## 1
Amino acid sequence: MKETLAGLILAVFTFIVSTSAQERPPEPDGYRMEDYRAPVPATLAGARVLTTAEAEAIWRAKAAVFIDVMPRAPKPQNLPEGTVWRDKPRPNIPGSMWLPDTGYGKLAAATEDYLRRGLVRATTGNRAALVVVYCQADCWMSWNAAKRILAYGYSNVAWYPEGTDGWERAGLAVAQSQPEPRTGEETALPR
């Protein structure tokens, strides 16, 4: 009876693992250009793919800079005059730099410059520094951004595909953050 139950559990586990692996799309040659909230590949050529346990170990050791690329909610058009608009804070991995909107498939020149400048600030110009890129689970934004960072010549890029969803599922603390300022914006708020 115990052997039958163990065999059944193993069969169900094997089915779940093989089904999840089959649902993962292959890496595209370029950047993902649409439908950003969808299953992501299991790999990213040139980058290390992290589990939550690995991301946590790197974070606890303070061995990397963490870059959150979750998009920022835009200010609504046509707000009545005098309406106070406050950005929605983003709960991210404590100590992360939030560089919103930098994970789209195609970036405007100003957004690409914002990403490059943010990386220089985060790494103090060291392209060999470990950079961990994340967003949320099943979010192509982090995959695109990590791929782009590799193309900029950073040699030690890690992609954390579970992002804040995986982090919170593991019971790890998040911190409310604000985006890094863009050129011409106020100075950065404490992270």
## 2
Amino acid sequence: MNPTERRALAGLASLYVFRMLGLFMVLPVLSLYGADYQGSTPALLGLALGAYGLSQALLQIPLGVLSDRWGRKPVIFLGLAVFALGSVVAALTDSVYGLIAGRILQGAGAIAAATMALAADLTRDENRGKAMAVIGASIGVAFVLAVVLGPLLAGFGGLSAIFWLTAVLALFGMLLVWRLVPTPQDFQRRAPQKGDFARLLSQGEVWRLVCGVFFLHLLLTMLFVPLPVLLVERLHMASDAHWKLYGPLMLGAFILMLPLMRMAEKRQQVPAAMRLALLGLVFGGVALMTPVHGGWMVACLGLFFLAFNLLEALLPAQLTRIAPAECRGAATGLYATLQFLGAFVGGSLGGVVYGQGGAGAVATLALGVLVLWALAWWQMRGARVTVVGS
């Protein structure tokens, strides 16, 4: 990579870390500390956990298309400002409904599509896969930091401390984009060609990737509804000490993920690596919700984190390889839409099911989701999808 590409990638990967850190930090603590909010129930806390995904899902494609017309940076600045406002709303409330409202407003700052498209604009074709893998891996870094910092901050100042830090990080992200990330010099403000996007949507491989990220984030948010409680019950860990488990596990999983990702890219075995990661989610995620204790529970959690990080890095890299440059913002918008829709569905379903049937019911649901994902992955292999109007 040349200096401009390295500078752009460093800035955008850091932006992803700051923004996703704020969203992820609530995962390991919301079901514990959210119980103190007025009107709190397991179902409403699950909704609050995934609520940001609903507004993200609704706005990713529109803002991605808008970034194709107006430019990436204006859309990113707007999204970060809205995200900061939602964080302030969530920090000031003492009601579960105010918490849900703040999370929805956080999600309305839907800049994932514009950010990925800007990274693609600022890198050459031969380096684009590497750039997308780094950005995908930055989400894994954010998750590592979040599961460590979330319990620490919540133990110090409750959920409000997390949301205040999130607002500050959003403002810092705006400064980062302004000062560090270059503006593409040859950017043309025109809408994507309708025929190109329709052809993109007709590819089964595209739908495999976007459905993959949907199921990945559905499982993540669904499993984190009961997981903090299970760590207290089964491992007898105080809620403010969970970072001592999450931190080493996530760091180890991230370190192991990097050579697996490089090997898959170098040997052109990305599909095989994604299938391997899917198996890791099957064994790790479902086993977590069964009555495992001690070392077995820790091992299952580590396997789940490793599989999550690997898929989080590989999926967007594959998508940007097959997306036409003129509709890259729309393509990454579709990807981000399914990503955050999965978070919304997972949090909402997890809260309802856990409230009705406990961790065992969540395990059964997770297994059903994984089977459905595997079937969809197989059926879409090499398929062509008929797109109305193409």
## 3
Amino acid sequence: MTIRPSSTWREDVAAEAREVAAGRLEPGDAFLAGLFPEALLTATDTVLQEFETDVRALAELSDERVMAVVERVVLALNAVNESFDGAGYETDEREQLCEYIDRVLADGGVDVPALAGRLGIDRYEITDEWRDW
């Protein structure tokens, strides 16, 4: 099972809070709670859960159906990012989200390199058509 980036980010925030509470990190040096507010984590987690459900529900792995699921998740993540003034996802988070999408598709039986090849794009470009984050 692929771990959602939002779960990892939530764990990182909690670990940093524990470091502050233990006195091993100065509160002014803690930044993860600001980078990953709970509202962003919850919204992202909801979108990714829906994506996982959509991938599992694919009865047919046609390119059109798979890319429709990819489009839905990307547009939903665009909306989350926009609700945080376009700053919800920075470079590392963007890369993690793209890798997550790739892995969930692969776990769902999609041959992502072959799909990308049929579309005439690189494997890591399958989100590019719709992605604003």
